[in-house]
């Protein structure tokens, strides 16, 4: 009987661990977004940037979603990102640091400031 209780306990702990781990990640609902094509399109790239920087409206559902998580993702080194989101952040970081480093620095500063505000100025 103790053997059965031990197995049930181990399974329960494993199940809770899996459920908890899944809760830590951002939704993968928009993981199919083609980040490279957005970066290559001046108009789209600026629309996304303006949305993230509070300089323009967020006109699509994916813009709104990513605006909510992008600052946290950058400041936490993407600890809650899916693998695809990590790859996308790397692609975006690489593109901006090579092509528009001033805009990237501006974004990072804003992300840090927003993170401080969100966490009570700590």
Automatic annotation (TrEMBL):
| UniProt KW Ribosomal protein keyword | no
What domain of life? Eukaryota
Q: Indicate yes or no for the key word Membrane.
A: no
Signal sequence span is 1-21
Keywords from the UniProt entry: Signal
PANTHER family on file: CHEMOSENSORY PROTEIN-RELATED, GEO07322P1
Name under which the protein is recorded: Ejaculatory bulb-specific protein 3
């Amino acid at each position: 009987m103790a053997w059965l209780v031990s197995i049930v306990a181990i399974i329960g702990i494993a199940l809770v661990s899996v459920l908890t781990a899944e809760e830590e990640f951002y939704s993968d609902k928009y993981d199919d977004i083609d980040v490279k094509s957005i970066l290559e399109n001046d108009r789209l790239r600026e629309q996304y940037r303006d949305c993230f920087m509070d300089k323009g409206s967020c006109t699509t559902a994916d813009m709104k979603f990513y605006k909510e998580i992008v600052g946290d993702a950058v400041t936490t080194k993407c600890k809650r990102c899916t693998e695809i989101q990590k790859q996308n952040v790397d692609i975006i970081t690489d593109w901006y640091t090579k092509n528009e480093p001033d805009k990237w620095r501006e974004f990072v500063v804003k992300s840090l400031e927003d993170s401080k505000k969100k966490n009570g100025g700590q």
